[in-house]
Each structure stands twice: as structure tokens, then as C-alpha cells.
Write a structure and sequence with these properties.
With about 750 residues, this protein is α+β, with helices and mostly antiparallel strands. It is built from 13 helices and 38 strands.
């Protein structure tokens, strides 16, 4: 472990060499439910305004000046991330139709290079589905580059793919590209044999592309003005696009997936509480979507077509037993003959509801059913032969098998299950185990390691992971909050160690075990890294999520505070050197906990923070606002929701007390959390809090800074090196705030 001083160093103190930008106050008022609120900084939302752009550039200049002393540390962290990364690398090939597809990365290149080689059909399924062995920097016989993202990104400041699909015969490539960061993509089609770009171009599409079996049609989604995917279109190559399906409810999001046999398109509309599913027969060019399960059932569900004994059936993962009306919040799985899908009495239970195991979905292939489940907070993959599915309600429930691994906290998620393959592919990782690609043999249960990510200079034995449980002191001591605690083996139980607490806690998203080479830059400096799995996430099933949404949302924030206090009293960390970090809805979490208990933290990094949630959700014309009502409640229609949100939304609850140092990170073109939210928040913080903002962070001050990526989106800048630079910037700010900026 690298050791760093925590005392006062002898270098010259760094003073703030610039004045923090002060935005003009241009008051506007909003009135809801008889409550009038004045907002002095709403004018900052006009990103086409010269005044706004000048302000953001001034904020960036101030941030750079105030943190210039951190540049050596940023460079060191960037070098560390790079040293732990094999820059010229490749993925394990995945077979689709007659080809093995994989990607390569090359040293010095920002993006992946997508490649393929021909596959063989010898009649030996195991041999035909065993991926070719490939070496770094060595091309395989017959290797083709089908899409070099580095070449495609030339001349652009930002580049992201929204979809990449190859026709079944392997001759056509459809791809969708975003060069601004606003997640609105341009769809193009290319011939792979000649490289010719076809004249079929569609602007303003959303994520996801799929060919029909003939390769003559491409399916894609179109977003509305609020960035909600709501229209399903088909592009008839050489002809016109045709609208196939439209979702008019502004609170419903729409998407599609191919069935396991890729002969049907499953179309799903819904939100976090209700869903509706349609099916499109891809073998009939004249077919139109048919509704399978209506939203009128007020049920969350997903549907997967499957053939049993040659007959078409549907597998339904659902959160309520329609026959009995009994709730199943952690989901159950049923099977039904295709022609009986509208008759709930014909649904036969495959997997009953469990209070301790959450079923997130299923995926069939020709012989088996793969089940995505969550148990003991972590994602697992369960496996069941299709032959064991019940034919009638009284047949009993089969018992799936599960691959077992040696760690307690790990992720083993289904990566792919090709329809005819004797293998399924699993993505395995843990907090200390780098990503592994595993093929699981369905016939024998043997697990085959296809690839273990190489991390140069890393010894997993030097790091420890523990599960702690913190009582929810603020709400109910009977509630235990799971914490993941990661530290270097050399860290001692002496109460002097710095700590970073990370959290999210929204949308039923779980912070699952996963390795990050960048995290080593914290751990190797003696930081105790804690993930607080607070309510609002999905780690402990649907109830854990429900207890942290809508009128229970404050549990998310108090859980994080209670977790921090528990860690501070553990004897492992110095209570005066705790930092916190979160992004997007986790950025809202950061803003809320700083208002609740700013004294607990020395430094905070808030990434694309959703800190003005109430203002945004009150405007249904803003991106995704109507969809957010299912998460937070509808403050427009419900006064109780309005008042509840007004009590916690960070921008409106900043207090005149000392706050920690804060770095707010945002992107000009982010469509999910608009840059204006952190821009306003920073102004409100600067004029309200009483902490010392004039002194640089390294000298014990608590500055508040805003850093705007002018060419990025919700995920920040594009390209792996630029993303490393962003992470190095964030970690340098945290480490400096924790007194770990001086090496010796």
C-alpha cells in the first residue's frame, strides 16, 4: 500500500487565485397549491444564451484555477488507472449466425474496434459453439473489421453508439451514432462486403436496433420532445419508414426485444408500476403488433415467447397472480399456451413468489430457461430445463439449479444464451475479482473460464471485503441497511483512516458487486470505501425499493446519514475525514444528505446531480418529467407530494451552516439531468452556506465548484482516456479534501 502524509506539509499554501462567478439574480416565480417560490437562477437553463455559456465557462475557469494544485495528483491517478489496464485487449467472441463477433481495444485509441471471423458448422455443437482463442494484437484468419469507432469518431468531440446490428445473412450493418451527448442518434446502414453506405438515414432515433429475419427491415425507436421513447418504426431498406406502434401516455416508456428465436418482436410499454406488452410476428411483413397483456391489469410484467413440445407458449414474469389477485412484489413466473394468454386461469406457475428472492426476468433457449434472480443482495443466474416446466396448475413447482462460486458478495449475470448453443455465457465479477467471462455447459453443469480480465500490478489478496449492517436509527432500528466495506489489507483498526461513502438509492437500481481498477487509487492510499445500499435501490427486493420512493423517499437520505454515522463509530475510520460521492439520482442523495447532516462530511463529489428535482418534475415538457412521477409522485396533481418533495429537494433546502467542500460535475448536453440543476445549486450554496469558501481545499477550505463538460452527456465525456481523466479529477478532489494529496 502506498502511504501518504495526513499532516501539514511544508509546501507554500495555495490560495484561491480567482473569484467565484456570481450569477445575476433574475427572479421568476412559480405557484403550486397556493405556495409561491421565487427562483433567482432559473435563467441559467437557456443553454443557447451567450450569458449562460459565458457563465459556465467562467465556472470552469474558476474551478480549474482553484484546483490547479491538484493537477499532479490527477496525473498520478490517471497513470495508476492506465497502469492497471491492458490497453491493447479484446473481448471473448460471441457467436451469432455464421460469425464470431468480438471487439478489440488498442493502446492510444479511445474506442473499441468491432470485428468478426467466420464460424464453422461441423455438427459437433460443443465444438461449433466453443469460441476461437484470440491473442492481443494478433489478427485471426479471416478477421474483418466491421466497425472501427475510432475512425468513425474522427473530427468529433463526443462519440457514442446507440445500437449496432448485423443482418442474419451477415451482409448489412445498421448502426446509430450520437456526436453531441444528447442521446439522440442518427441511424445509418452499411454494406459489409463493400463498405458502401446505403441511402437509408434516419435522424433522431433512440437506443436499440434490430433486423427482421430477411434483413430487409430495421426496427428502431423514436423519442418524443421529452426524450421518452414512444414510437416503434420499421425502416424498409430502399424505401420509406413506417410507424408500427405509438405509446400516447406520457408516463409510459416503450422499448422492444427480439424473442429467443428472433422471429418475434416483443414490445413493452410501462413504468416502474404498470406494464403492457405487445407482440409482432416478424415472419409476416404485413403483420401488425398484437396486444398480449393490457395495462388495465395494473400489473408489472414481462413476456418471453417459448416453444414447448413444438407448441408456442409464453413465459410471464409478473408481480401479481391474476387468477387469485394475490400480490407477488418479488415476482413469480408462469407459463401459458399462446392462444390462452388472455385467460389468467390458464397460467401455470413455474416459480412461485418468494419473500427473499427477487426474480428480475427470464430468458429461454431451445432447451433451458435462464432466470435472472437476486438473493442476499446480489444478482444470480438460475437454470431450469424446459422439460420441467409444468403443463398444468397441479403439477408442482420445479427447482432450478444455480452455478456456485467461492465468494460471498459477487455478481453472476447472464450475458447471453444463444438459442442453439449448448453453453450460456455468464459475466462474473466481485468487488475484488476482475471481470470474468464464463461459459456454463447446460448438459453437465461445468463452468468454463473463457477469459479473466488481466489487471497489471494488482493482487486481489491485498484487499478485503466485508458486509456490515447499519441500523436505520432515524426511522426504525429494526431496519438494517446493508453496507459493502472495501479496504486494503494493511489498513488498521485505529480510527485514523479516511473514508469515502458512495450511494444511489433510486429506481430500484442496485449497486452490485463489480471490480473497478480506478477504485484502487483510493484503496491504495488507505481509504476505506463504503457502498451504502440504501432504501430506494433494489438490493433487498421490491419492498426495499418501495420503502425509498414517493412519500417514503426521505428514507433514502436518512439511511445514508445513518450508514455514515455507523461507519464513523466503527473504529475503522476518522470521523473527521469522511467524503461522500454519488451521481444522477445519487447526486440528489448527495445534496439531500448535505442539507441533513453537513457536519458528517469533509468533501463531496456530486456527479450530474438531480438537485432541483421538484422544479424539473413540475414541468411535464422537460425530458422524462412525466415518467418521473412514478418514482417521486406527481407534485402537480398532489399537494401532499408537492409539500413532501419541497421538504427534501436539495436546491430549496440549503442551510446557512458550514458545509463540506463540494464539486458538482455536469455536462452541457445531458438530457437526463439538465446542467442547470447543479449550476443553480452551486449558486445557492455559495450565497447561503457559512463555511470558508475563500481558502483552497488543500489548505482546509470548503470551496464549492462546478465543472461542466461542454461536449459530454449524462455519462460525461466519451472515450476511455477522457473518462479516466474525469475519474482522476474526481478522486483527486476527494483525496485532497481528505488530506491525502501529498505523497512521499
Amino acid at each position: 500500500m502506498t502511504h501518504h502524509t495526513t499532516g501539514t506539509d511544508t509546501t507554500t499554501p495555495v490560495a484561491a487565485s480567482a473569484t467565484a462567478p456570481v450569477a445575476e439574480t433574475r427572479p421568476v416565480q412559480r405557484t403550486h397549491h397556493g405556495i409561491t417560490v421565487t427562483d433567482d437562477f432559473d435563467w441559467l437553463r437557456d443553454k443557447d444564451s451567450d450569458d449562460v455559456l459565458a457563465h459556465l465557462h467562467a465556472e470552469n475557469a474558476y474551478t480549474e484555477s482553484l484546483t490547479a494544485d491538484q493537477q499532479p495528483l490527477r496525473e498520478a491517478i490517471f497513470a495508476e488507472i492506465k497502469s492497471h489496464t491492458v490497453e491493447t485487449d479484446l473481448s471473448v467472441p460471441s457467436r451469432r449466425d455464421g460469425w464470431w463477433y468480438f471487439s478489440r481495444t488498442e493502446e492510444g485509441q479511445q474506442y473499441a474496434i468491432h470485428c468478426r471471423v467466420p464460424a464453422s458448422d461441423t455438427g459437433d455443437a460443443e465444438a461449433d459453439w466453443t469460441p476461437p482463442v484470440i491473442e492481443r494484437g494478433v489478427a485471426l484468419d479471416g478477421e474483418e473489421v466491421i466497425f472501427d469507432a475510432n475512425r468513425e469518431a474522427e473530427g468529433t468531440a463526443f462519440f457514442a453508439l446507440g445500437g449496432l446490428a448485423v443482418s442474419r445473412d451477415g451482409t448489412l450493418l445498421a448502426y446509430a451514432v450520437d456526436t453531441t451527448g444528447d442521446e439522440r442518434f442518427t441511424l445509418r446502414v452499411r454494406r459489409l462486403d463493400t463498405g458502401e453506405e446505403l441511402g437509408d438515414v434516419v435522424e433522431n432515433v433512440s437506443y436499440g436496433l434490430a433486423f427482421d429475419p430477411t434483413g430487409e427491415r430495421i426496427f428502431y425507436m423514436v423519442p418524443d420532445d421529452t426524450w421518452r421513447p414512444y414510437q416503434l418504426w420499421t425502416l424498409n431498406l430502399g424505401g420509406e419508414s413506417e410507424l408500427l406502434h405509438q405509446e400516447d401516455d406520457p408516463g409510459f416508456w416503450t422499448g422492444f426485444d427480439l424473442s429467443a428465436e428472433r422471429d418475434q418482436l416483443v414490445i413493452g410499454s410501462g413504468n416502474s408500476e404498470v406494464a403492457e406488452t405487445w407482440i409482432l410476428d416478424l415472419t409476416d411483413p404485413t403483420a401488425r403488433p398484437e396486444r398480449l397483456v393490457s395495462r388495465e391489469h395494473q400489473m408489472l410484467h414481462s413476456i418471453d415467447p417459448v416453444r414447448l413440445d413444438g407448441a408456442p407458449h409464453y413465459l410471464v414474469t409478473h408481480d401479481r397472480d391474476l387468477a387469485t389477485q394475490n400480490p407477488a412484489p418479488n415476482n413469480m413466473v408462469s407459463v401459458v399456451a399462446a392462444e390462452q394468454i388472455t385467460d389468467p386461469s390458464a397460467w401455470h406457475t413455474v416459480l412461485p413468489h418468494s419473500p427473499t428472492v427477487k426474480i428480475d426476468g427470464v430468458h429461454p433457449n431451445r432447451t433451458h430457461l435462464m432466470i435472472a434472480a437476486r438473493a442476499d443482495t446480489t444478482p444470480r443466474t438460475l437454470i431450469l430445463p424446459l422439460s420441467e416446466l409444468p403443463a398444468e396448475r397441479s403439477a408442482g413447482h420445479p427447482c432450478p439449479t444455480e452455478p456456485r462460486f467461492g465468494e460471498e458478495l459477487y455478481s453472476a449475470e447472464l450475458a447471453s444464451a444463444p438459442f442453439d448453443s449448448p453453453f450460456i455465457r455468464l459475466a462474473y465479477s466481485s468487488w475484488v475479482t476482475p471481470d470474468q467471462v464464463l461459459d456454463y455447459a447446460l448438459a453437465t453443469g461445468e463452468t468454463l473460464l473463457r477469459r479473466a480480465t488481466e489487471v497489471p500490478g494488482y493482487d486481489p489478496n491485498q484487499y478485503l471485503v466485508e458486509r456490515w449492517w447499519a441500523p436505520a436509527e432515524s426511522t426504525d432500528r429494526r431496519v438494517a441497511i446493508p453496507l459493502t466495506v472495501i479496504r486494503h489489507r494493511d489498513v488498521e483498526w485505529n480510527g485514523s483512516n479516511p473514508c469515502v461513502v458512495y450511494g444511489y438509492g433510486s429506481y430500484e437500481a442496485s449497486m452490485d458487486p463489480g471490480f473497478a481498477a480506478s477504485r484502487l487509487s483510493l484503496l491504495d492510499r488507505g481509504v476505506v470505501y463504503v457502498v451504502a445500499h440504501v432504501r430506494g435501490g433494489g438490493e433487498l427486493g421490491r419492498a426495499w425499493y418501495d420503502q425509498g420512493k414517493k412519500l417514503h423517499k426521505k428514507n433514502t437520505f436518512t439511511d445514508f446519514v445513518d450508514a455514515t454515522r455507523f461507519v464513523a463509530s466503527s473504529g475503522w475510520v476518522d470521523p473527521d475525514r469522511i467524503g461522500c460521492m454519488g451521481g444522477s439520482a445519487g447526486g440528489l442523495l448527495m445534496g439531500a444528505v448535505l442539507n441533513l447532516a453537513p457536519e458528517l462530511y469533509r468533501v463531496c463529489v456530486a456527479q450530474v446531480p438531480f438537485v432541483d428535482a421538484l422544479t424539473s418534475i413540475l414541468d411535464p415538457d422537460l425530458p422524462l418529467s412525466a415518467l418521473e412521477w412514478e418514482e417521486w409522485g406527481n407534485p402537480i396533481a398532489d399537494e401532499q407530494v408537492y409539500r413532501y418533495m419541497a421538504e427534501y429537494t436539495p436546491y430549496e433546502n440549503v442551510r446557512a451552516v458550514n458545509y463540506p467542500a463540494i464539486a458538482a460535475m455536469t455536462s452541457l448536453h445531458d438530457t437526463r439531468v439538465l446542467y442547470v440543476e447543479p449550476a443553480k445549486w452551486v449558486q445557492q450554496l455559495r450565497r447561503t452556506v457559512t463555511s470558508d469558501q475563500a481558502t483552497a481545499l488543500r489548505d482546509g477550505g470548503s470551496p464549492v465548484v462546478l465543472r461542466t463538460e461542454m461536449d459530454g452527456g449524462h455519462g460525461g465525456a466519451s472515450g476511455r482516456y477522457r473518462s479516466w481523466e474525469e475519474r482522476a479529477w474526481e478522486y483527486a478532489f476527494l483525496l485532497t479534501g481528505l488530506g491525502l494529496d501529498v505523497e512521499h
